[in-house]
Amino acid sequence: MLHIRIFLFCFFSLNVFSYVPVAKTPAPSRKAILQLTAEAAKNLRQSKYDKSLSTARVALQYAIDRNDDYLIAKSYNTIAANYEELAEVDKAIFYYKKGLFHADKTDNDTIKNSLNNNLGNTYCFGLNNMDKGLSYYKRSLNYSYKISDTSGVYITKVNITWAYFHKDKFNEGKPYLDFINKHQNEYHGNGTFLAVSMLNGMFFTHKLEFDKAESFFLKAIKSGKEAGDKSDLPYVYEEYAKLLKKKGDFKKAYENLVLYNSVKKELEDADKFNRANVVGVNIELDEYKRKVDAIESEKNLQAISLQKSRIIVALFVIALTVVLLLLYSVYKNYKFKKEKNEELTIANNELLAAKEKAEEASYLKSQFVSTISHELRTPLYGVVGITNMILDEHKELADSPHLSALKFSARYLLSLVNDVLQINKIEENRIILESLTFNLADEINLIKNSLLFIAKNHNNQINVFIDPAIPEYLIGDKLRFSQIIINLINNALKFTNNGEVNIKADLVKIENKAHYIEFNIQDNGIGIAEEDQGKIFDKFVQIGRKEIDYQGTGLGLSIVKRLLELFGSTISLKSKIEEGTTFTFTIAFDHDPIRTVELINKIQVDLTASEIFNVLVVDDNKINQLITKKIILNNNYKCTVVESGMAALAIVEMEKFDVILMDINMPLMNGFETTKRLRQNGIKTPVIALTAFDKEEITEEALASGMNDIIIKPFEPVILFKTINQLLYKSNEVAVV
Questions:
Q1: Interval 228-255: pLDDT, tens
Q2: What pLDDT, in 10s, does the model give residues 404-428?
Q3: Is the Cβ–Cβ distance between 193 and 3 less than 8 Å?
Q4: Is residue 593 a contact partner of residue 284, using CB atoms and an 8 Å limit?
Q5: What is the pTM of this model?
Q6: CATH of 192-285 among 1.10.10, 1.25.40, 3.40.50, 3.30.1760
Q7: Which CATH number is 614-736 given?
Q8: CA 158 – CA 139 distance, rounded (Å)
Q9: Where is the Histidine kinase domain (predicted)?
């Protein structure tokens, strides 16, 4: 499919270029910008993605300066095509849609045709979304017919045929196959011969006419080899192998699968090389459009500044008057305060005593919450781990409702523990918002995917609508933001059955770097009675709607409200019984491309190690030993387990380990003391704490003892191996330096 997509893009790019009249204007002229877009398309055809993106970026800047929607759409089309070839599907769709937004403002049907066709490709073959992809293909066909572009009709129908056959919908794709076979000779030179031959092979394989199918596959393979472009050749080998398997020629089928993997790997290695060249270009693409807004903002600020100067003079006079009045008031009250000073001192002493008691009570509460969470997380680690082990070792139990219920119950209990800890931290003002760069659309879609299981249980659908005007990268505390969205969506799913939950994000205001984004979480569930709407944000409140028992701590919405207060925001709701509920709030995130680049450069690269690392596990709990060892061995690492700090000190003297996983709460010698002694003995092996304690409680002591990182149990295995790889990569980097 890679070759056909490149051809389609280049075909439409050249076709569009021929339809646009050239206007002679001062540099950069429209002709010069069109030449830049043609150069970007040429670099794309040659797989020079870094040069293509750089050139398209310049063209986009000039197009925005000219406020030319056609040129803007054409530049976005090139940018999106690059990301599609680099398999960054979300970015490709984002920029294709931006291009289509500007294209729809023009009368040029050719650029609309190109963008709709490319979106059809991306949805069908990138996101495997057949319905959405076909809707874009059909729009593309309408435009092709409108402008009498017969070659465009032919190519789009090739793509539609492939999409149907890819989904084994041969009956639906047959009319399109008949069309392209009928007109193949007319468009033999347009680069589709390999694809058409392969599609015929797929169809006759489906019809069990093996001889005809094999003939077409061999033609396709020969065409791919002679053309020198191997982009689509792996798909031919793969489909040919399926035919051979049906014929019972397993040896030859295996040989073709080997060829498929070989060519596929060769192409993927080339993509990685090209992707490396474009790192650093990705962030700056939308910067130029923002400059236009910045210029307008600067003009407004100058006018506001003049007005402020006048206001300042008036305020100075008022302030001076107020100060004089205050001085008089201070003098008048001085004697009164002196008389009351002794009484205030006594009252202050009483308040200090009360404060100390309150602080002691708060400390005891925190200690209690911490202890309970530790005692609960340790057995939960065992329950979740052993459940996963049973599922891994006994595949026949994968659909067991009992195991599913056990795993769900453990995770649900862990969620309750985390809710209690979260509200405790907020009340003690222990949460400080972080500044991290993140992609809003990616973050919301990640949350959506993580909650699909709950949505499926209630037969609900989650829809996401992101305003295209929102910048690609924002700066803010994405973790706390995610907690807000997760709690609200989870709440909506819980009280909705056979319905929809919509997540909308709209850019409502820009002030300097602050972009104010309004979020709406809307469901069509059972709704909230008007008399209950004032209570739902209180702690431990559960509104009994329709006398149905909904599980939960009653902390979710209370956490949402308090986290939004940290962002300087509030939340409102509209709801009607049996019609649904909408929660609305606004958060201001910064958009600063320069700072975004700095933050991204500080993010450690996650490497997937191909080496077999030797891991030492230090834990006194037998169940934890069993589970942790199983997780490590499943990743093909070596693993040694000891049950005390003394045993760890002894074994590292005899054997070399790449990383040590250290429990904290052990008898005789805890994890902190063990790590200190390891460092005193000259052992520099990275140490990761595996503990059920809350991370913020032990971070300072862990770093002081010489530990390198902390992972809280229960944990996802991917987090463990990502942390190990980052530490080992960092150690190797230091060693090289």
A1: 667 778 888 888 888 888 888 888 888 8
A2: 656 656 665 665 566 665 556 565 5
A3: no
A4: yes
A5: 0.40
A6: 1.25.40
A7: 3.40.50.2300
A8: 15
A9: 371-591
